Every structure is written in C-alpha cells, then in structure tokens.
C-alpha cells in the first residue's frame, strides 16, 4: 500500500541519477555532441546585445546563442569561480580590469584565438595579453547636476574630493557600494590612487570615506539604484521611485553625453573630471577555461569587434568603442557633453588583485 | 496476518516502521544534507565556526544593522497584521455573509500571491502612476509593513476564523447571563481571549517567520536597509570559494545561523500553540444561523479593496507607460505586453518563462504530493500508536519553513553542487527547493484531514477483506480527494511563486522561471520606459496563473476546515 | 418577580401570541410540549437573548424589554451544560460569583471535593450540577431552565430534579422549566403551561 506510494515517489528521483533525463532533454549541454551549434555566453545584462545583434550573428555563422544572465561583472566572476570544475558557459562577457586579474590567477580563463588587430592601443593599457579581449571601455567618475551648483549658497563645483565632505553637500552624494557594484568598485579603487597622490600627506583614502560617511553619503547596492533613484541630474527623474536626494553620483564620464543623446541634446548632468578621481574601465570578452566551443567563442569575439557592432557601442551599449580611430558620435550633443579626465587613476590590474580584499575591508571599516 | 484490528505486533509493526521511516529519510536527505554540506563548506572556507562569526555582521558596513532591522520589521509587521487581520477574521467568523466562501477566498488570495508580484503591485500603487509617495524615503518602512500585513492577513483569517465560526453560541450566551460576563471586558477576559489567543498567536508566529525571511518585498520596497536575507543574497554568490572574498562566507554563516535559530524557536512555539488551538475548536454539528452585521461592511469592504488593489495595480501598470516630459505622465498601451510576449535577448518571452515555471511546478507536484502524503500518513499512524516519535517528526516536516529561500538556494549551490558539479547540468535542480518548500504545506493540509477521518471507515474496509493497496486507492485517497486537490494546487502555487532559491540558482537564461524573470526585467536600467510595463506584464501573467490555480483549489476545500491550509 | 405582558413571537409560524405570564418570588412554572414549538424561544426572549415581536417583560416592576441580557440579572441553564474548559470547576463557579465559597456551593449540589477537577472529566450530570451551582451563585432574579436534564439518563434525572427544586426553594428563586416530559413538568411545579395554550385560539 504505502509501498506503492513510495515507489511513485522514488521513480522521479531515480531517473536523473541515471543521467538519461539529462541527455534526452538537455541537448544543448556543453560537451554533448549534437547537430546544433550552440555558443553559451555568461554575461550581465549588456543591453547592447540586442536580439537583432544576436540573430545577425546566428545568421552569419549558423551558431545559436544561449545566455546566462547574471547581475553584474562581479557575479560573472563568481559564476566562473563556482563552476570552475564544470564550466557552464563558453564565453564570458563583462569582466573588467578590476576583476580580470583574479580570473586569470584562478585559471578560469583560457587563451583566445580571435583576430584583434583593429583594437586601439589605449584599450590594451590595463592588460595586454592573450587571455582577454577588450570590447568596450569607459571612464568612471562622478557626475553632478549642474542646476544644483549655486556659488552664493556655498555650493561650488568641487575642485577636490574633500569638498564633498562639506556641509554644502551633506547627504547629496550617491555612490554604489564597491562590494556589490563594479562601477562602485572602480571608483573606490580610483580614490586609493587619488588620495595617495594629493597634497595632504596626513590623510588617506579611507579617511575620506569616513568623512563622507559622517557627511551622510548615500551608499546603494548597485549603480542603477544610485543613478535612477537618487540622482537628480539623470533620466531617473522620470522614474516611479525617484527620490532625488543626490546631486552627485558615480557613473561614467560620458554619461552626460548619453543623457544628451537620448534627451534631444539637452541635459543638466555633467562630469567631475578631477585628475585621478576617474578610473579607466575596459570590459573584456574572455573564453572560459575548459570549453569545447572555443572556435564559436572566437567567432563571437570577432563579431563583437566588427565595425558594424563595435562602432555602435556608444549608441547600443552606452560605452566607448575599442576600435582604432573610433570616436563618440556627434549627434545630439553626445560627444559635446562627454568628458574625460586628463589623468585617470594609475592602478594596475595586478595591484588590484593583490589589494582588493584589504581595500574592501578598509572601506567597510571606514564606513562602519 | 498475525494482527487483530485492535493491535499489531512484531512483523507488521516492524514493516510499518520501515514504511514510515523511508519517506522521512528521503525528506531529511532532501532538506538536511544540502544544508549540512553548505555549512561545512562555509566553515571550511571561512575557517570559523558559526558562533565565532556573529560579530562579523556588525563589523561589515554591508550588513550593519541587519539583525536589528530584520527583527524590528518582522515584529512590526506582525503587530500590524494582527491589528488589521483580527477584525476581519471576527467579521467573517461571527456574522452571516452572502457568498462568504468567495469573500474568504479573495481575502486569503494575497497569501498565495508570489511575493515578487506583491512587491510589484505595491510599487505600482505607491509609484508616480499611483499614490506617488516613493519620492519620500520615510514612507519606505511603513509601506513594507503594510505589504507584509497584506500578505499575512490570510494567516490570521485561516487560523482565527474557524475558531470563531465553529463555537457553540450558547457558550457566549451563557456567559452573558453570568455576572462575570456582564460587561464586554468580562466577556473578553473570560471567553474571547482564552478562546482566541492560541489561534492569534499561531498566526502571529507564522507572520513573524514569513516577515523575518521576506526577500522580494524587502529587496524592492526598502532597498537601502539590509536584512539577514538580503545580506545573504548580496554576498552568497561569492561564498564557498577558497581564498576569495572570505567575508562573504562569514556573513552567510552568521546570517543563516541566526535565521535558523530564530525560526526553529518560532516553529516549536507554533507546534505548541497549534496543539492548544486544536483543543479550542469545537466541531459543531448543527448549523446555527448567524446574525447579520450592520457595521461589518465597513470593515470587509476596505479589507477587500486592500487585498485586491496590489493585484489589480500590477495588471494596470502593465498597460501603462511613462511619458517623458516636464511633468511625469502616463498613457495606456499594449506595448508592454507585446514586448514581454515577444521576448528579447535581454529576456526570454514570458510565455517561455511560464512554461518553465509550470514545468518545475509539475515536477514539484509529482514529488511533493506523494512525499507529503507518505509523511502525513506516517505521522498519523504514529499518533494513533501514541508513539513519542510523532511530535518530533511532525516538527521535522516543518523544517524547510525554518530555512529561508536564499539559504535553500545557497544550500544547493554550496552543498549539493559541491558533491559533484555534474548537478549543475541537471535542469531539474531548481525544482529541489520548490519541493522542499511545498512538502510542509502538503503535510499541513493532509495531516489534519487524516486526523479528522473517521477510523471506522478504514476498519470497515478491512472487514471487507480489502488489502492495503486497495484501501489506499479505493478508500483513503478518494475520501481525501478534497484535501489532496487543495494540497496539490498549493504545491504548484508555492513552486510557481518561489523566488529566493530560484534567484540564487537560475543557471541559464533559457530556464528562467517567471518570478526570476520579473525581477530581472525590473532590475534593468529603466532608461527605456518600456521596461516597466513589460516587467509588470510578466508579473501579471504570474499572478493570473497563480490566481486561477488558487480559485480552483477553493472549490474543493471543505468548509470551515481547521487545518493550517 | 417576573411579569410577561402580551408577548408575541413568530418565525415561520406563530409561536406565541399575546402571551401573559406572572411569576412571584418562590414560584415555579413549567412549560411543556413537543419540541420546536417555541418553548425555548420564549425562554430566550425572557432572558433577552432574542427579541419579542411585541409585548413587554417586567422584572420586579421594571420594564426590561429593551435591556441587554447581561444586565437583566436573569439566570439560564442550557440544554447542554456550558462549562468553560480553560477553567476548572472552581474557576467556572467563580464566573457566577467572584467571591464564591466554592466548597459549600459544591457541597450543596453534591459535588464535594470537585473544586479542582477539569471540566472535560465530568459526566453530563456532574457538569449540569456545576452549571446549576454557578447559576445560583449569581443570585438571579429568575432562573430559566431549558431542558437541562434531557441529556442525562433516567435514574439521575429525577434525582437532579429533586435537588434543583430544593435549591430553588431554599433560595426562593422563581424559576421556569421547559421540558417535553410532562411528568417532569408536573414534578417541578403546580403550574404547567401546555404549548398550545401559548397561542390564543380565536
């Protein structure tokens, strides 16, 4: 009697153990021979990769694409590390130069074989090797709402990051946490370099963060929340949950250009391009160690680097292209409103890999 | 057979014991092993034991205040839920209402609504196309409390209403005619309070449990406050990797241990209270005609509006799109649905996600229902034998409720997948936490039904020389058809709405479940105004599917049952 | 003393119409007839648990028709003994009178030593005795008894009836007994109203 019930219970549990369910259903599993050519990409939500782009790739090469979509670049690295012994993807998109070294050190990547001759030199500046291919780049820095500047009320354009710790900007700066956000992480890394090289030898970067905490800095878990919910200078003002309590936010130096482009050449946002308070970020396409579809991955990388795709990065992906001689489009004030610092933070990927844990610990201690 | 009807000895008892033990072993394996493995992994990577890491929660900015906030919002949510829920349960239990089954079903709808849908609903109500108060951060906490209360009112109704509606009116009438019951306070003190407090406390404990581990609502409605659950979600993905972000292991270890302790205590309290509650439910054989309430509509109407608004708001928001401009405005559109159905490389079609969700739900059903039946049957048999095993095993079946969604997901990620990474390739892995969550509900539904069954029915069948398989298939299952159907549907609904564990485990875009898809769509940068209505369309689809399942279940539910669900 | 004036009540049919009733101190009355004919309803109306369609009720000269049941000072014994299981026997008695002398009250109804018993453990007869003791402890102006002994077996019933009568007499409490047992009715009181007398034949 109950035995019958138990048997019914056990059967569904037993069949997967035999593996037969996996083979019949999951035809697209990595390593299983089948007629379809499939490339599995693990990435975070890069909205530059639209259906049209993917379909084009499939049409050109006959390779279908499956996506594993995670939250952000950090999640991509986590995934690679978690699945190291049984990689689920062939290609990882979105690791940047703050994560790359760790990925290389832990051997979750393998060499690529794509043709990368048309990439500009500056994109190779952080990393120049065969384990990763840049496909877009940008500089991370603070943006601010120009309408919030009012010299007569003591709200001047900051000339130093220390200005942000003054009463004028109390509670008006929004920064994503370096623990959970890669722009936040990049900005924090920049501050380590900024304060190591400023005039004041008595204080370092963690002192600044402590001072910012005392000045009610708004720390969010992600860029989206900081930019859309808190920042007064961006498109977030039209969003449902817009709070609008921050006049400063960490974003890209070219974000005002993006705002202008989509806003008919109008924006109130501009970037604060102080030397070393800006971080040159490069995003990479990397082949996952152990994949059997490296060939497909290389084709996709070359597709990403093709002119039709990569020159469209500023429009499709809101990032700079990595191709030689490429520039931001001039339309709608994109190029006009975008800015770059004359000097980015000088931190190498190796320094980042070596120090990240202690930096994060120091950051947390500073804000606690 | 060597047994008489009255008692069994030797061989039969031993084989019965084995038959009880097997489902429990399977269940324990499903629930306990991943967790133990995950705990082991966390301890190994962090190099610390759970009691050594409690302080780490306060040492990290990311998790500062998480313990305090988790407790505070759970307690406040519980209080608010009782304040709103008790008058509603009173009205339902005490007075005669036309279409009372429908009203009750509508009022308990929130509980089976997936949390992510509820979060979206409240965001829609509070956003700029609604009350427009999200601009004020100080409203966040109160909004969360109301969202939790909305979700858990059903518990108050399910626990308290049957107690009130089943009492013999002469009990109250008698007291009115005694000096002690002359005044309202007297009647409350001597009658209503002793009668109701076990049920009220049962509802309160469960409300606390669900609010304590709430994920979707906290994540969306009060993003800047950390709870133990959101801390685990934030750092869980990086845990379990040697020499990498060690602190994430400490935080997960600390959060999950605290959660587990609090929840085990809560569940133990619950089982004590439920026993007390069962003493107070008197099954009344006659039906008394109840009075009609004159002011009751003033309570039930707002209650119905409150319960239904977030659900309607989700659907409405899926048909509205924001127009950029100097003043925020919205217009009606079907583009959200079109985009959601069409899918995109940013997200799969909601119809595909629905298919995935239903697939997992079906798998959950096929396993959780027989498993739950075996567990309930086993406990019932032990109870009849007055075995001291009955109670602990009863509590054991509730164990998954003590483990939050995120921890279940991490348990599998860090635990099972550590045994062998081949588990990553099994498409059915996300169903495991669904099964773990659904089974306690199945037991909670079937066990009271089994208890209520007249044992003479089984004994009579035995006298007709039916063997055990025949009794099972021809007597027991058909008699419990109603509860079985309800249990099955609840299992499907729980699976479809499961968010936390699925969020951790979602492995490929193609296997997204609907709840995870809603979250992904809402998380996209909101630059494109189409993102919001598309996400709401996904949420609407999820909600409508769950609603249909639930209303189906209600048709089969026996009236006034005293079970938990 | 109790006076009912022109009481009328109808559900689907007329239960009683222009009923007049008077009960003085120390008097007892029985109402008898087949079940479902309004006897219980009459008691419930007198106690205030239900409203009359027409007519008035006077207690000690005061019109209590519009006063809620808990303020009328009327005692009621239901068909099934209504004891509160979360209290023991003593606790139940104290509901009738907070300062009750529990032991002497129990002695009076022959339940000496039952003070700390749990209510679930009492037999039907014992439970009804407790309910009776409790009702009397409240010193009601009138005691209404709605077939309180119908669930008790034959032998016990007459004993209980006798004991009840003596308790009521010693206190002089007026009482109305409703029963379908004519013999019981006649034992209880000289005045017995038959059910069809409740409806005037016109």
Please, could you describe this protein's structure?
The complex is a heterotrimer of chains A (368), B (565) and C (202). Chain A is of the alpha/beta class. Helices cover 36% and strands 17% of the residues of chain A. Chain A has helices at 2-18, 20-25, 51-61, 73-82, 100-105, 182-196, 205-214, 223-230, 255-262, 294-305, 307-310, 313-316, 334-337, 349-367; strands at residues 38-44, 64-70, 91-96, 109-110, 133-145, 173-176, 218-220, 248-252, 269-272, 279-288. In chain A, strands 1, 2, 3, 4, 5, 6, 7, 8, 9 and 10 form a ten-stranded mixed β-sheet that branches. In chain A, helix 7 (205-214) runs parallel beside helix 14 (349-367). The longest helix of chain A is centred in the C-terminal third of the chain and has 19 residues, at 349-367. By secondary structure, chain B is an all-alpha fold. Chain B has helices at residues 10-46, 56-59, 66-94, 100-112, 115-126, 140-165, 169-176, 184-212, 216-221, 228-236, 246-280, 296-318, 335-342, 350-384, 390-397, 405-419, 431-452, 455-463, 468-479, 481-497, 500-505, 514-523, 531-556; strands spanning 320-323, 329-332. The model of chain B is unreliable at 1-8 and 560-565 (pLDDT under 50). With 202 residues, chain C is an alpha/beta fold. A five-stranded parallel β-sheet of chain C has the order 6-7-8-3-9, sandwiched between helices. A four-stranded antiparallel β-sheet of chain C has the order 2-1-4-5, covered by helices on one side. In chain C, strand 4 and strand 5 (62-63) form a beta hairpin. Chain C is built from six helices and nine strands. The interface between A and B is large, with 75 and 75 residues.
